[in-house]
Design brief:
Peptidase A1 domain-containing protein, globular, Cathepsin D, subunit A, domain 1, transmembrane, membrane
Length: 548
């Protein structure tokens, strides 16, 4: 064997051996987004955190791309509307998704109060306590904030900060719970006759939720009015008419650029000139109460009289590429309210359309809200500086969790670990997991992860290595012979490699192809960052009048 061939062989082995030795190590946490039991024996919809000990306190939260830290409501300062002002009352607890009481937690530790965190510019009381997620992952002594005022009635419960500098994603990543700073969110629905649980996946997404069809992928966008950086364009909105036909409500209006804020409890927030043709086609009449706007549940959305009624569906087109259908049952329903015992009820004499109107001169950027994601799926990957909105299937099936592994540049399936039910509320006296029952107080490695049921012995490993090296040698010899032939034939002039079409800023791909079940490498075509400026940051104020 010539020295040149030996050098070629060694070079070839060094080149391809990392491909054989590199391992995709996907890790993710899959949590339900649904109604959870509270200490007041009522329920609130959200992501469950069990906080403190020995008796854990159930708190529900909403994923929020606005904040980078996590903000809860406390038992001493619930800042509820005046009719529920008594702290820790059942209606106030339901409205806030549970009220955290520091005084009854033996694991809570104080941190410096009234610290303004750089990324959020929010004044709050900060504390640390043990957090247990619904998949039994534990975050020991995790720092979070207790609000000192209410500035955002659009989101009434606590918020998990998932912004570009999210401390929650950072902690999960450092603890090896997840293999990427990413998350996905599907809200499900509670307003339909048959409710549907939502899904909140950290470190990846649930492939089983994604329907076949076109999705929209885009890099984050810097805009002072959209701190989230998740911006799309609504290019059409159509409604079914009474004669069964479809009418474009916005045919005489310009495309509407919107900020995606999944933490708000509505389908969308739009200027009045975009609402008026919707109301005209529906033939509905706004209720006189508060100028036809909801006060607490689905804040500021539109209230209408029960008659005349509209029975059609709505279709919204994003970036002229993807259509999301809103069925009538999610478009119009009885107005939701919290009764004196803390239970959510629906009225029969007033109906609700979860669309909020922006009055002229308000200055608010139009938005897509959380209820839009009852029929679409939001996937955010901070490591790739991009987000995706995908169509969803009509009915939930067994989860197929896919994780982004940023370190190894791959996407791969993992074993889905979805809790079978909500943990017992703190009022029943449930205690912290003990070492004897298999729980780990520092459960950073107990997240949903790819696992193998058996290990290979030394002989098997040696055989595999020998087989791989033999295969490599054969491939190398074949490649060398081909290389020699091409060299003798001489280079051909004026030949250029054939490249695919350039990738546009907004990529429209078939969801079933983009998120294939088999692992594949992540592309780099949009691997650049857009820094968001600091304008438009919220400041805590007392009262109910402010909003972000």
């Amino acid at each position: 064997m010539s020295s040149s061939f030996l050098y070629f062989l060694l070079s070839f082995v060094n080149l391809i051996w990392p491909a054989y030795s590199a391992t995709c190590q996907p890790r993710a946490i899959n949590l339900p987004y649904k109604s959870q039991g509270l200490a007041t024996q009522t329920q609130a919809r959200g992501v469950l955190w069990q906080i403190g000990g020995p008796s854990k306190q159930n708190i529900t939260l909403m994923p929020s791309a606005w904040y980078n830290d996590t903000y809860l409501w406390s038992a001493t300062n619930g800042f509820c509307p005046s009719q529920w002002w008594t702290n820790n009352s059942p209606p106030c607890a339901t409205y806030r998704g549970g009220l955290y009481d520091r005084s009854i937690s033996q694991t809570e530790k104080d941190t410096a109060n009234q610290i303004s965190h750089t990324f959020d510019d929010t004044i709050a009381n900060w504390t640390r306590d043990d957090i247990t997620l619904e998949d039994n992952s534990v975050l020991p002594q995790y720092e979070f904030a207790l609000r000192t005022g209410n500035n955002n009635p659009f989101t009434s419960i606590g918020e998990i900060g998932l912004g570009r500098s999210s401390s929650f994603l950072k902690t999960l990543s450092e603890n090896k719970n997840i293999s990427s700073r990413s998350y996905s969110f599907f809200t499900g629905t509670e307003v339909t006759t048959q409710s549907r649980d939502g899904s909140f996946t950290l470190g990846g997404f649930d492939q089983a939720l994604i329907a076949k069809g076109t999705n929209v992928t885009s890099p984050f966008v810097a805009d002072a009015k959209c701190k989230e950086g998740i911006i799309v364009t609504l290019t059409s909105l159509s409604l079914q008419t009474s004669d069964g036909k479809t009418q474009d409500a916005w045919e005489n209006l310009a495309d509407l650029r919107v900020c995606v804020i999944a933490a708000t409890s509505n389908i969308m927030t739009i200027p009045v000139e975009y609402w008026d043709p919707i109301q005209s086609i529906m033939g509905v009449e706004r209720n006189s109460f508060r100028n036809g706007t909801a006060e607490t549940q689905y804040y500021n959305t539109t209230l209408i009289k029960p008659s005349p009624n509209y029975s059609g569906n709505m279709s919204i087109v994003i970036n002229s590429a993807m259509t999301v259908d809103i069925p009538n049952e999610q478009l119009i329903f009885g107005e939701h309210y919290i009764d004196t015992k803390g239970f959510v009820q629906a009225k029969t004499d007033i109906n609700q359309i979860p669309i909020a109107r922006i009055n002229p001169g308000d200055g608010m950027m139009p938005r897509l809200g959380g209820q839009f994601f009852s029929n679409a799926y939001l996937i955010v990957n901070h490591d790739k500086n991009e987000f995706t909105i995908a169509p969803t299937v009509a009915k939930s099936t067994t989860p197929k969790i896919m994780a982004f592994d940023t370190a190894n540049n791959c996407i791969a399936p993992i074993e889905a670990a979805v809790a079978s039910g909500s943990p017992t509320p703190s009022s029943t006296g449930s205690s912290s997991p003990k070492a004897s029952d298999g729980s780990n107080a520092n459960n950073s490695s107990q997240s949903t992860a790819s696992k193998k049921s058996s290990k290979l012995g030394g002989g098997a490993i040696a055989g595999i290595v020998i087989g791989v090296l033999a295969g490599i040698a054969i491939v190398a010899i074949a490649a060398f012979i081909l290389w020699r032939r091409k060299r003798r034939a001489g280079p051909k002039l004026n030949e250029l490699p054939a490249y695919g079409a350039p990738t546009e800023k907004y990529a429209y791909r078939d969801a079933s192809e983009m998120y294939a079940e088999n692992g594949h490498e992540l592309g780099h075509e949009r691997g650049f960052a857009h820094e968001l400026d600091g304008a438009g940051r919220p400041h805590e104020v007392s009262g109910m009048n402010g909003a972000r």
